[in-house]
Amino acid sequence: MRNIKKNLTKAARKRAGRSSGRVTVRHQGGGERRRIREIDWKRDKIDISGKVERIEYDPSRSANIALVLYEDGERRYVLATKNMKPGFAVLAGEKAPAREGTSTTLARIPVGTPIHSIELKPGKGGQLVRSAGSAATILAKEGGVAHVRLPSGEVRKISLDCRAAIGQVGNESHGLKKMIKAGQKRHKGIRPTVRGVAQHPSSHPHGGGEGRSGIGMASPKTPWGKRTLGKKTRRKSKYSDKNIISRRKTRAQKRDKQK
């Protein structure tokens, strides 16, 4: 907190998983005070070069962020890529070279290049591929669109006028970190979780029974009786379905492919 740029942050309002005073998301509450770092998703400092001053930890996301000082004296936060370090040069615009840290349109990025922070609509700002260690790949370009393979394995059509940042997002070892004590979760605002089978039958559908009797039903359910496995939550008439070339692979499909 001591080293962050206060003018590039804003106060974060704690909701603790509650809406109108009622719990809507369980197991949330407490946690350390934090400020939201305002990330430059649009990268609209066109043709103005900048240099990375330092790499910072952001408590609100898995990826690290880089504080960039531009030639005109303005500072902004951007996502830190894998090889980014203090002194690293960054640039955005049509004339920017196709190298790590650059933000430009998909039309100017070579096929096979790892990219992140991808726009879905020109000028809206990066929406896809923003978590630690993630990267997408351009497979082909045709008819004014790029075929982009996302980290999930899904292949999607995105307009060549949309912009993306080049490189893999840094802090790729984020998923390997283990919580070594209960206090670490409490600092993150995560409250204790009690298994359904350990609860009273009036508190959870899995509860009750003599001894360890299991859940006693074919499919697990939420505390409110809704099935939790196998139900697809994506809308059947999603507006962006027309842009999806191939869906992401399920765990079973990946397992069968390895065999």
In the CATH hierarchy, what is the architecture of the domain at 6-171 at level 2? Roll
C-alpha end-to-end distance? 49 Å
Mean pLDDT metric = 87
* Total E-strand runs: 15
Question: Over the alpha carbons, how many angstroms does the gyration radius reach?
Answer: 22 Å
Short description:
The protein is mainly β and 259 residues long. The protein contains two helices and 15 strands.
Structure explained in plain terms:
It is built from 2 helices and 15 strands. A hairpin with a 2-residue loop joins strand 2 and strand 3. It has a 7-stranded antiparallel β-sheet with strand order 9-14-10-11-12-13-15, with no helix packed on it. Strands 7-6-5-8 form a 4-stranded antiparallel β-sheet, with no helix packed on it. Helices cover 5% and strands 23% of the residues.
What does the secondary structure layout of this molecule look like, with pairings?
Layout: E1 9-11, E2 18-19, E3 22-23, E4 35-37, E5 50-56, E6 65-70, E7 75-79, E8 89-90, E9 103-105, E10 114-116, E11 136-142, E12 145-149, E13 155-159, E14 163-166, H1 182-187, E15 244-246, H2 251-258
Antiparallel strand pairs: 1-4, 2-3, 5-6, 5-8, 6-7, 9-14, 10-11, 10-14, 11-12, 12-13, 13-15
Task: Output the keywords.
5% helix; four-stranded antiparallel sheet; SH3 type barrels; seven-stranded antiparallel sheet; 2 helices; mainly beta; 259 residues; globular
